[in-house]
Amino acid sequence: FQPWNDPSQPPFIEFRNVTKRFGDFTAVDNQSITVYEREFYALLGPSGCGKTTLLRMLAGFEEPSEGEIFLDGRPLTGVPPHKRPVNMMFQSYALFPHMNVADNIAFGLKQEGMAKADMAVRVEEMLRLVKLQDFARRKPAQLSGGQQQRVALARALAKRPKVLLLDEPLGALDKKLREETQFELTDLQESLGLTFLIVTHDQEEAMTMADRIAVMDHGRVIQVATPAVIYEAPASRYIADFVGDVNIFEGRIAHLENGGLTMTTAAGFTVEVAEMPQGVARPQAGETIWFAIRPEKMVISHERPQNATTNLIEGEVWDIGYLGDVSIYNVKLDSGDVVRATRLNASREVERPITWEDRVFLSWRPDAGTVLVR
Ligand code: ATP
């Protein structure tokens, strides 16, 4: 399922050069975004970057200052929210406290004038969908956070929208429940064949659930790609840093080859990169660039790797964090820089344990990191 790589696929949701200003503040700055049918698409970025504003414009709660939004080929300009085949689920759930679960779910259907018998069937179906059959008569206050979240989801899905908009849908849940619910949401999205557009500032949430992620900063989308590409080949230092843990080294190009390059870092070691990622501007010799490498791509060892001269640094273990599945090692180089490596704890059985103040080597393969030009 990769409709974004299939030129015959028509876009399903399309923001075309959309700008949104509040007074003289630009919340969304001339953005074009394409989402395909049945896609799980995440808008990821820090608070205030304009994610929610994009959702609200699609839902019809705000009109763009400039540009246009299309759904299934039709412009949405002037279409009131309740006439759009789009529904929104809010972080606060916005359940009616005085209504029971069934009435909360039925609310939108009632407003639409659905016949009572049909409504009962639909509510039953929704209760089954979110596994709350036994809770139909309870009030929201008598439910756990996770159950309230499912009521909100059922209510948002009851009118069978083509697109579900989710604004930080899991923000109020604790970590374990959040992780479970992430998988429930993706299962539901797939089985119902809906298009989900989710807003989140939580990179793990976006990575776990989304087919594609749009990373946003200051009203602009700065990279759109699959979770793996965002993580493995981030387009900038900002993205590398925002999504996951990363070591970033500033340096200069020593040597440009076919596809790859050699760079000298300010920290005093040499990096050899096998291949520049696709779509990244080719840096010029002498230009400042950055090398980004994830901690788990660093091999940490007491032994110096044989024959290695590049992609090798040496330092002292400064700090260790035990996380159960992995341990994190902060290694202080002679230059004073601190580099982070992780190692699976399962591999400890075969190797000598690494401990504080040990002298260690960090090495990596030429395809393990990324060169960044901004
Ligand atoms: P969060 O995760 O905090 O909701 P966000 O990325 O969703 O952040 P938006 O809610 O889209 O951000 O807001 C983007 C910017 O636009 C913010 O700086 C916000 O203060 C501003 N903004 C949003 N709505 C309005 C409004 N109605 N009037 C004035 N400014 C607004």
From TrEMBL:
<dbReference type="GO" id="GO:0005524">
    <property type="term" value="F:ATP binding"/>
</dbReference>
<comment type="similarity">
    <text>Belongs to the ABC transporter superfamily. Spermidine/putrescine importer (TC 3.A.1.11.1) family.</text>
</comment>
<dbReference type="Pfam" id="PF08402">
    <property type="entry name" value="TOBE_2"/>
</dbReference>
<keyword id="KW-1278">Translocase</keyword>
<dbReference type="InterPro" id="IPR003593">
    <property type="entry name" value="AAA+_ATPase"/>
</dbReference>
<dbReference type="InterPro" id="IPR050093">
    <property type="entry name" value="ABC_SmlMolc_Importer"/>
</dbReference>
<dbReference type="InterPro" id="IPR013611">
    <property type="entry name" value="Transp-assoc_OB_typ2"/>
</dbReference>
<comment type="subunit">
    <text>The complex is composed of two ATP-binding proteins (PotA), two transmembrane proteins (PotB and PotC) and a solute-binding protein (PotD).</text>
</comment>
<dbReference type="InterPro" id="IPR027417">
    <property type="entry name" value="P-loop_NTPase"/>
</dbReference>
<protein>
    <recommendedName>
        <fullName>Spermidine/putrescine import ATP-binding protein PotA</fullName>
        <ecNumber>7.6.2.11</ecNumber>
    </recommendedName>
</protein>
<keyword id="KW-0067">ATP-binding</keyword>
<keyword id="KW-1003">Cell membrane</keyword>
<comment type="function">
    <text>Involved in beta-(1--&gt;2)glucan export. Transmembrane domains (TMD) form a pore in the inner membrane and the ATP-binding domain (NBD) is responsible for energy generation.</text>
</comment>
<keyword id="KW-0547">Nucleotide-binding</keyword>
<comment type="function">
    <text>Part of the ABC transporter complex PotABCD involved in spermidine/putrescine import. Responsible for energy coupling to the transport system.</text>
</comment>
<dbReference type="InterPro" id="IPR017871">
    <property type="entry name" value="ABC_transporter-like_CS"/>
</dbReference>
<keyword id="KW-0813">Transport</keyword>
<dbReference type="InterPro" id="IPR003439">
    <property type="entry name" value="ABC_transporter-like_ATP-bd"/>
</dbReference>
<dbReference type="Pfam" id="PF00005">
    <property type="entry name" value="ABC_tran"/>
</dbReference>
<dbReference type="InterPro" id="IPR008995">
    <property type="entry name" value="Mo/tungstate-bd_C_term_dom"/>
</dbReference>
<dbReference type="InterPro" id="IPR017879">
    <property type="entry name" value="PotA_ATP-bd"/>
</dbReference>
<dbReference type="InterPro" id="IPR005893">
    <property type="entry name" value="PotA-like"/>
</dbReference>
<feature type="domain" description="ABC transporter">
    <location>
        <begin position="13"/>
        <end position="243"/>
    </location>
</feature>
<keyword id="KW-0472">Membrane</keyword>
<keyword id="KW-0997">Cell inner membrane</keyword>
